[in-house]
């Protein structure tokens, strides 16, 4: 199945390309920047086209992933070329405008499923992620809809089906109010000329998390955030309410109205109900995720660990030497590698990682046991200490010859394993017959 | 060493009592509520006194942990009774007022170290937590100061020493602005009558995290938050700046000034510099902590795991049956236990947990090997499959008798281990001599 992603060289489009490719689909991406397109082509092993219409013609599924302010224009350009029997989707953060445009410009016989994946391009997978679909009644009954829905569920996503206008109403709060308050906070810290790095020294967990959310949002494409605020007419009321509440609380503090402040906070808490408690729990998990990770790392100082650099995707295997601030130091072939804990994933089961990463070397060694020995029992026992398997058995007079294949990742390691293996064999009633080095 | 915590039956005071007790100190707590005090006494194994002055007289260290609005009054009551040579501290979120009061009312010869632990009573430890100390120049040179400083560092805390007025200036932003914006958001959601639970269905990671921060704050004692806003005169300017920025952005959105919005956001991003990127990384760790935990859990379905209920501190060991939404289901002795993942800690190394939790049963079994067998090698090998040790060895003609002690947690488990052990022994050149059941 061919999937064309219109605007797939950047952001969420690129994420989708990578994700869908990893799930076995044939992916085509388009984009205006040819150089970037070629890079993405190489990086992800997908096909790049500098032509939206061409890509639309080729796709069994066509996904529009372009900025909000040009979404309508791109749909007008692309939708008429989507083949009958194909599926047309978008992934825009607003839904009324693109839903209408896709229905209007797509041919009869094309299924339209507008979507809003509620996450950014740093999500590790679809697990637990929210995806909102806003198909019309007609398309909701289509075969394509079933396929999309089942695929998303299988990937662990939380899928919701809404009318486009209900979606936009909810998003005015979920995205509109959230972004608005966070960008206002960012701008306030700038106006107050707060030294962010310095202030972080004195951070409470909540402040650190808020700073990190600000960093997360203001570091992204500002046009996306402008469009989310500006293309949703329901946001104006939200802004006004927020400003009112800020002024109300300011007045309470200024007039030292302690009971008034407490009343306001209690009423908000009452409105949240059980959700307040859940929030406290959830934020605990989030806040202490890094703390726990660092505690776990410290327990493993001196041990061999595998560390994946999330930026380069390189995996480093070495002895953990030090954990300090945001960094860990790994000793690797006599050299030291310093890695940012925030940008790594740590694996403590190093053997499993090695098996995935490296080609194993091996050597074969034959051992004589008494005929009545059960070699399966011996194998099970030795497997706890060695990466090995039995490759040959035959009886020889009153003896039994068992050939083991021992695996390792380097000559040195194999040599050491050989020594150890022979020592054990001698002590569990076996005697060496011959050995064969690969 | 005796530590008296004035106001130690609740909140951070109670946390401190538990923490310090776990570190081997003798702890006394005081509080107005005798019933609650008695409960804490029993729960934490500390001593409760319904008398602040008495507790102050007894402590080698006296820590004031009472609400901001009564801190000054309590210091006035308690400080004169702290013994010469003792240490007087507070843990209030503001520092100018209590620092002055302690210096004023404590006897000459009492060391005063005002402090502000920047975390709440849900912190798992002092690891990575910020603690600010605001001692005067004189007390900074004291022996007590060194002791406190070294203790905090050893526990992994990030310790900073500031002048009280600098502390309060920083906190006007770190706590003042943060709480103010979060409480304003909470009040806005209430005013807009947003169904929080329903809205969470459609949450982006940022919205979910913001909701959780709101829940975290509004679920706590509102008087603390009122006092933090009201006892710090620097906060008024902060409020005003925030309101201004909110209005500024509102105007940009209303007039559809896309470039103006982008400019404001870019300037804020510029002010954040590298901190924006760090924020994105940090929030990724926080946001995906739960996702990763759930992914890890799903990998372990069908396996035996240990799950600690963070509320009851009970540990459940069982087979992981299901993971759904916030819950995991454990099969335990034929029954099913459903636990909230947000309130649990999961351990995959079940053996380690069992060793800590349960008393081990054992049985001894003697095995004859050839005299030239190295029993250390056999022991090392068997330890990979069994929890065992060698407790006796002696030579017997051309044989060697080795007595193993095998451990387990139930008779059934031991019986199964015994069967397995005997089967292995037979196959590695050993023969049974006798056995002895404990």
Radius of gyration of chain A: 30 Å
Mean pLDDT of chain A: 93
* DSSP E strands of chain A, number: 17
Largest sheet, spatial ordering of strands of chain A:
3-2-1-4-5-6-7-8
CATH topology of the largest domain in chain A: Rossmann fold
How many DSSP H or I helices of chain A? 17
Give the CATH H-level superfamily of the largest domain in chain A.
NAD(P)-binding Rossmann-like Domain
Between the first and last Cα atoms of chain A, what is the distance in angstroms?
Answer: 43 Å
Domain Prephenate/arogenate dehydrogenase (chains A, B): 1-283
InterPro entries (chains A, B): 6-PGluconate_DH-like_C_sf, NAD(P)-bd_dom_sf, PDH_C, PDH_N, Prep_DH/arog_DH, Preph/Arog_dehydrog, Prephen_DH
Protein name (chains A, B): Prephenate dehydrogenase
Keywords (chains A, B): Oxidoreductase
